[in-house]
Structure formats: structure tokens, C-alpha cells
Amino acid sequence: MMSNKSLIYIAGPTGVGKTKISIELAKKFKTEIVSCDSRQFYKELKIGTAPPSSDDLKEINHHFIQNKSIEEIFTVGDFEKEAINKIDTLFNLHDTLIMVGGSGLYADAIMFGLDKFPEISKEIRNQINLFYENHGLKALQELLLEKDPKYYTRVDKNNHVRLIRAIEICISSGKTYSSFLGKKKDVRKFVSKIVVIESPRERLYEQIDKRVDSMVNEGLEKEVKNLLNYKKYPALNTVGYKELFPFFEGEIKFEDAINEIKKNTRRYAKRQITWLKKYDNALSFNNNTPIIEIFNSLIN
Fold it and tell me: Considering the entire predicted model, what is its pTM?
């Protein structure tokens, strides 16, 4: 076990300033950055996912930024395999790596491993997706309640992707999805350290609104319009994109779509903050904390 190797995860809600802090820490540690943001993987999503800028990418070598297409199926399990292989390789060059991103499930997959599930056939996957298209979210919820009442009580019932995933497992295995949770996972060859970046809620929401306005000025409307033909792809079920599709279909005004993006981004940030509370051993810092203070806390 490479116990002298450390993966430092920079966590925090969207808009809090994780990108800037991760880059400054990477400079201090003279290392590289692994992204675990599940939407920044996609090369077609250049504005609405707020990926690191070209200048940021020149400063520090990043991995898993815009390296996939929205037309590819890239699950959290796929990410775990690819990212662990990359991390193991990078640890041959560095004792410390920085990981950053707001996708908590993807971060946990790297730090702690995933629960092991059976493979799903394309036929079953297509059947469940067709069921969702024809009958909607409520029917998915009722089907999961029938197949796995235990998981139904804890899942985000408005997240159709998670509902579909659980139902796929139930149908493929003949067992409940919840029966696969909490089993023994892979042991990692590195130590994970978690840094949570915080901001007063009011200030965070102001920053989110400013960032959305900045995305609009950078051409978010044009970017989403060019992706209309792909709107049913899972990668496009993303805040900043899904709210603009009704505008292009003439259902709402542009200003209302932008307000929806701001509202849904704030809601997403709130869910992220709740998720981060489970990291009991995390170091927490305000987003205006000097980098040297965070760096010293980590090396000490």
C-alpha cells in the first residue's frame, strides 16, 4: 500500500471557488489535478459547466476535463476505473495529487470505491428508458417502490437517472438494489484528505447569480441551441442546459429560463452542502482563506 501517497479532495458547493483554490494548491504541491466533476467531462459543454479556462489548464495539468463526448455512455463506474488507473500512474511522479469537483458520488467512488453491481444488458437498459419516456417520472417512482421499498425511502425521487439505475439492477439480478449496498469495497493505495470550501449562504447565492449572468454573456444561449438535437442525452439533463430547452420550444421567456437556472443552481448548491456534512474528518475553510494557511494545515 502506497501510504505515503496523498489524494487531496477539494470539495464544496458550486460557485464557491474550488477551481481557483485547487490550482493554487497544486502549484504549492507541484502536482497535477484530477477532476471529478461529472459534467466537465464533456467537450460539448464548454460554458454551462464552468470548466477551468484555457489559462487555468495551461498553469496546471488537469485530467478528465472535456475528454468525453455527450454521445458516449460514461458512468460513475467507468470513471472509477479510468480515474484510478490515471491516479496510480500519476503517483509514480508525485506524492500528492489534487482532486476537485462538486460531484460527490464521483469523488466517493475514487476515495472509497463503489458498491459492486451486476452488469446490465442493453435490452433491459433500453426497456427501462423507454418505460420512462412513455410513462414519466411518477411511474418510475411507483415501479421502484414495488421492486425495492427500502431503497425507495432514501433515494432522490426526482432524480430519474438514479431511479432507472436501481430498477435496472432489480430487474437484472432478481434482487433488490439495496441488497448490493454496503458490501466490502476495494482498498485504495493512497490516503484521502478532504478539504471543504465554504461561504456564507447569501454570498454564495450572489456568486452563483453572477456566474450565471457571466455564462449568458459568454454565449450560453448559442451553446444550448446547438445542442437541441441531443437534449434527451443524460449529459444534457444538467442545470444550465435543461432550463433553456423550453425557451427554444417557445414555452417560456428567455428571462424566465435564466431565472430557473439561477434557482436550480442554488438548489443544487444546497444539496451539495448537505452531502458534504457526512465528511466528519474534513478540514473546512472559508473561500477567502489564504492558500498558505490551507497548505500548512494539510502538510501539518
Answer: 0.83
Round to whole Å and give the CA distance between 146 and 244.
34
CATH architecture, domain defined by 6-114+185-299: 3-Layer(aba) Sandwich (3.40)
Task: Note down pLDDT in tens along the chain; length 300 residues.
Answer: 456 899 999 999 999 999 999 999 999 999 999 999 999 999 999 999 999 999 999 999 999 999 999 998 888 889 999 999 999 999 999 999 999 999 999 999 999 998 788 888 889 989 999 999 999 999 999 999 999 999 999 898 988 888 999 999 999 999 999 998 877 667 898 999 999 999 999 999 999 999 999 999 999 999 999 999 999 898 999 999 999 999 999 999 999 999 999 999 999 999 999 999 999 999 999 999 999 999 999 998
Q: Which of 173, 36, 205 is nearest to 108 (CA)?
A: 36
Please state, in angstroms and rounded to a whole number, the distance separating the CA atoms of residues 226 and 73: 20
**Cα 275 from chain centroid?**
12
Architecture of domain 122-180: Orthogonal Bundle (1.10)
3-state secondary structure of 142: helix
Q: Measure the N-to-C terminal CA separation of the chain; round to a whole number of Å.
A: 22
Q: Please give the DSSP secondary-structure letter assigned to residue 185.
A: -
Sheet with 96-100: strands ordered across: 62-63, 33-35, 96-100, 6-11, 191-198, 283-286
Phi/psi of residue 45, nearest 5 degrees: -100, 80
Distance in angstroms (rounded) separating the CA atoms of residues 142 and 112 = 31
